[in-house]
Task: inverse folding
């Protein structure tokens, strides 16, 4: 049962082959026996899950089944969930029980979905390996010595190991696509503004976007159907009709114009990864797509631009974690300053502190123009590059990450190399575009993700291209040996 | 020229004899004042959340998840604050920026739940404008408004009643404010107060704020510096924080001027710092120096889109602006024939002006209405420490009273008596109250010639000595007779008739 996709499980529930309670119990049992090896979950919520499953079964019986009726899902611990610990991977929020639900959580609840638990993640979503979590690193199901990627590493590993049919992730610079690539699953970062950010703990507000992490593109479409839409409580969400993302999945790719940015295939890309991507592109050619080399000349500015903007925003966003109203507070503060300094000093981990300091510096008087303002300008240039490219092509493709999953501990003392693992994904966030990573093969015995980038609001096109690829290939069906 | 040289030059420019009385040091030092006024905009809900802005609720009962700064919450802008801010900008002839942007001002403080305040630094909603203030000598002075921007208020730290701890009340957090920044155009504490009063009058006229200073809806920071007269460059300033009454603004600025002058006179230099005014001790004291000042690390708030307003929308707001104090004042002078002094006095307070208009229209006598409002009504309010809006006699009641003066039912003197009765709570709040009291107390004026003559005869008969004196040329005694007649009639005889008839009787 645990090898089924959302689409298959929905069909099974509908046909009465099994109940949501049975299905949910299957996954809870799997989590119980297998999570210890992987550390995918910060919190497992069996009582809530079984309660929701029971309700879902009742709703289905009474003919009121929502879009995801009875489907067990796992939520990244960045989403506020009422009455449940919402830690964001940090000691700082270890004691934080959210008094409210994020909009995304409300939407899943309304659709009849079941929450199995909250997945592990890099602390406040800052990291590319899930090693910055205060709850310990997540292991990659394909190789327990390797990282799952980050920051949505818990979600990616849980989906890959079949501990959950699907999960949510959030992506600020690649945090859905890079772990999807490392774990061999399907991950979609929607257009900025497509999914509400309300209740999703902010890392970098102008870049953060939530999306589905699933086995298949078809499942990603089903989840996005629930997640997408304008939210009055998020001023940056966009008031635009939400299409049925399942509708165009089977459109023909004949004549689809695919652009390959030459900058994505230059120095720094692992040769084995490059080969996998090239053969994936050939698969598209076979389906009638037209391949074109393009250029994104300001690509090299993406990482430096991102590492000004994201830390600047996070330095301000994380200031509310001050030990005054909620979250971690140091013991016996001497005075107010001591309370601030020790609560934050003890509550935040190294990577979070590093970024808060970088951001604080970049926004300081005398440096603001040289860093933040300049970064906003280069951000515009990067966005312009994509706009020009999309005058020639429908979809841009390339690797999701320059390598396959590296080993735990390998890059922890080398933040720059770690930052570069998001080199192909970051520009997409800066431009606010939708991007996907889908399983495209293996290199060095580890999964490789193919990245698809679309125009603003072209999620349907990406899902269509991804689904057609998955009809021709079986990479997305591979299960890690340890979790078969 | 050094301050020292300037001082000696000035001192030598008068001989001892010529030196005007009370020539103070102000002759040598020029005071420069700029104000930052925080006006609470009267919206029902907060600027970025749906929580109520009502004053005085139990602590933390009007703070929702957004106001508490919980993880994950996002601000949503309340358009009512924009509308009200634009009204202010138009009222002071300012440029309205069609695109304005909210910035984050980052600083840690327990009553600032997000550890940043959402404000507007780089692109404020209101650009340069100006207002004219009236100086004591009757002349006017133009004061520049540099800008006005929207921002959210912080919560309150409560230091009392918590042993060695501080209580935090976030009810006020997120209340919309308009911060109005002036040019450093004011040269005395009196000018600063006149400016503040004018801004207060404008926001009250516009109905964009209740202007309640006790509740903190209208408060100001004053930047005060001194420079040698004639010098272009500004001196180093002190910023006096959070002063919430007209009286304290004047006092705070004056003690700060004295403090700075003492330093400068002693050859010292003023340091740039933030100071707090202590109204009990009537002194200012240092809060933090420039070195200790925060670097607020302003940057555009990525959670909010730029605020865009079209030329058409701005024009529509302009068309709907209510009449402002200056325009109303001119109208009173030109159309109602009031003196400039009365017109100004009536129009400062919108509540008073509107009260005046109601009474004036009903009795068709602007002068009488003005005299009453600026005279007895204001005097009673002052005596009772009441704002005009809280005056216990409403416009209908006063109208009813004045009508009876006009139709000679009562004299002005009796009217005052009735006014005081209504003021102290007699009557039911409508126009007939004066009539009821006149009836009940028998205060109707005596206008019957026969009746008045009878009283006069009695007075003349009772005072033969005074009559003889009067007839021998002591004209001043007429006042005595009028007084006697009025007394005998218990104030009810018509004074005009009494005069006329008395003369007839005494000098036939």
Result:
């Amino acid at each position: 049962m645990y090898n089924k996709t959302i689409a298959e499980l929905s069909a099974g529930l509908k046909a009465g082959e099994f109940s949501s309670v049975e299905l949910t119990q299957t996954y809870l049992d799997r989590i119980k026996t297998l999570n210890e090896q992987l550390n995918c979950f910060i919190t497992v919520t069996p009582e809530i899950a079984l309660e929701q499953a029971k309700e879902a079964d009742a709703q289905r019986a009474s003919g009121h089944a929502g879009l995801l009726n009875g489907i067990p899902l796992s939520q990244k611990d960045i989403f506020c969930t009422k009455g449940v610990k919402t830690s964001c991977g940090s000691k700082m929020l270890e004691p934080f029980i959210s008094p409210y639900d994020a909009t995304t959580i409300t939407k899943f609840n309304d659709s009849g979905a079941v929450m199995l638990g909250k997945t592990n993640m890099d602390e406040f979503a800052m990291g590319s390996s899930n090693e910055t979590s205060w709850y310990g690193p997540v292991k990659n199901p394909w190789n327990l010595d390797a990282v799952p990627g980050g920051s949505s590493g818990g979600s990616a590993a849980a989906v890959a190991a079949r501990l959950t049919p699907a999960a949510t992730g959030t992506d600020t610079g690649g945090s859905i696509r890079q772990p999807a690539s490392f774990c061999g699953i399907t991950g979609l970062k929607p257009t900025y503004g497509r999914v509400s950010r309300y209740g999703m703990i902010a890392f970098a507000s102008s870049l953060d976007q939530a999306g589905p992490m699933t086995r298949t593109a078809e499942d990603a479409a089903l989840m996005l159907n629930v997640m997408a839409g304008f939210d009055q409580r998020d001023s940056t969400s966009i008031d635009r009709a939400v299409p049925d993302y399942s509708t165009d999945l089977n459109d023909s790719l004949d004549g689809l114009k695919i652009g390959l940015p030459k900058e994505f295939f230059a120095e720094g890309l692992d040769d084995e990864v490059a080969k996998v991507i090239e053969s994936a592109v050939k698969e598209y050619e076979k389906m009638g797509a037209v391949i074109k080399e393009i250029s994104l000349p300001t690509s090299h500015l993406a990482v430096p631009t991102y590492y000004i903007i994201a830390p600047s925003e996070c330095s301000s966003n994380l200031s509310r974690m001050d030990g005054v109203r909620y979250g971690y507070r140091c013991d016996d503060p001497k005075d107010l300053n001591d309370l601030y300094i020790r609560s934050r000093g003890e509550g935040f981990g190294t990577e979070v502190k590093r970024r808060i300091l970088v951001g604080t510096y970049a926004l300081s008087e005398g440096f603001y123009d040289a860093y933040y303002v300049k970064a906003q300008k280069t951000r515009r240039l990067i966005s312009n590059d994509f706009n020009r490219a999309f005058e020639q092509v429908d979809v841009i493709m390339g690797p999701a990450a320059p390598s396959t999953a590296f080993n735990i501990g390998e890059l922890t003392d080398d933040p720059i190399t770690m930052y570069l693992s998001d080199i192909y994904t970051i520009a997409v966030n800066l431009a606010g575009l939708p991007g996907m990573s889908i399983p495209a093969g293996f290199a060095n015995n580890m999964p490789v993700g193919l990245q698809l980038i679309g125009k603003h609001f072209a999620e349907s096109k990406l899902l269509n291209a991804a689904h057609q690829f998955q009809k021709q290939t079986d990479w997305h069906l591979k299960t890690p040996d340890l979790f078969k | 020229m050094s301050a020292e040289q300037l001082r000696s030059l000035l001192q030598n420019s008068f001989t001892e004899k010529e030196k005007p009385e009370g020539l103070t040091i102000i002759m040598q030092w020029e005071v420069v004042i700029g104000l930052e006024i925080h006006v609470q905009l009267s919206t029902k809900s907060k600027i970025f959340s749906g929580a109520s802005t009502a004053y005085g609720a139990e602590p933390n009962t009007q703070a929702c998840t957004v106001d508490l700064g919980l993880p994950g919450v996002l601000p949503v802008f309340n358009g009512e604050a924009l509308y009200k801010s634009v009204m202010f900008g138009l009222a002071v002839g300012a440029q309205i920026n069609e695109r304005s942007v909210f910035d984050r001002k980052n600083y840690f403080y327990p009553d600032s739940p997000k550890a940043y305040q959402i404000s507007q630094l780089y692109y404020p909603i209101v650009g340069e404008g100006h207002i004219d203030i009236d100086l004591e000598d009757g002349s006017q002075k133009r004061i520049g408004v540099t800008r006005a921007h929207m921002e959210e208020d912080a919560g309150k730290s409560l230091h009392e009643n918590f042993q060695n701890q501080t209580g935090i009340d976030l009810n006020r957090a997120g209340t919309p404010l308009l911060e109005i920044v002036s040019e450093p155009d004011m040269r005395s504490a009196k000018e600063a107060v006149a400016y503040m009063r004018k801004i207060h009058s404008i926001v009250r006229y516009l109905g964009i704020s209740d202007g309640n200073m006790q509740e903190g809806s209208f408060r100001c920071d004053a930047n005060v510096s001194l420079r040698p007269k004639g010098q272009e460059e500004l001196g180093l300033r002190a910023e006096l924080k959070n002063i919430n009454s007209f009286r304290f603004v004047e006092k705070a600025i004056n003690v700060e001027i004295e403090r700075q002058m003492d330093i400068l006179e002693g050859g010292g230099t003023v340091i740039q710092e933030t100071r707090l005014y202590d109204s009990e001790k009537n002194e200012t004291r240092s809060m933090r120096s420039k070195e200790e000042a925060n670097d607020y690390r302003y940057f555009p708030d990525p959670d909010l889109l730029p605020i865009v307003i079209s030329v058409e929308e701005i024009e529509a707001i302009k068309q709907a602006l209510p009449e402002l104090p200056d325009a109303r004042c001119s109208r009173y002078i030109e159309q109602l024939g009031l003196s400039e002094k009365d017109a100004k006095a009536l129009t400062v307070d919108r509540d008073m002006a509107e009260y005046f208009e109601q009474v004036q229209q009903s009795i068709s006598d602007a002068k009488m209405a003005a005299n009453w409002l600026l005279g007895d009504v204001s005097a009673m309010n002052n005596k009772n420490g009441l704002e005009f809006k809280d005056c216990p006699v409403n416009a209908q009641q006063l109208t009813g009273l004045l009508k009876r003066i006009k139709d000679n039912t009562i004299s002005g003197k009796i009217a005052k008596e009735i006014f005081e009765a209504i003021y102290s709570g007699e009557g039911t709040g409508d126009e007939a109250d004066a009539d009821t009291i006149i009836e009940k107390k028998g205060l109707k004026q005596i206008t019957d010639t026969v009746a008045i003559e009878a009283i006069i005869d009695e007075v003349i008969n009772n005072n033969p000595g005074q009559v003889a004196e009067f007839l021998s040329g002591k004209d001043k005694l007429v006042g005595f007779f009028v007084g006697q007649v009025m007394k005998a009639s218990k104030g009810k005889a018509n004074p005009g008739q009494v005069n006329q008839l008395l003369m007839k009787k005494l000098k036939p």
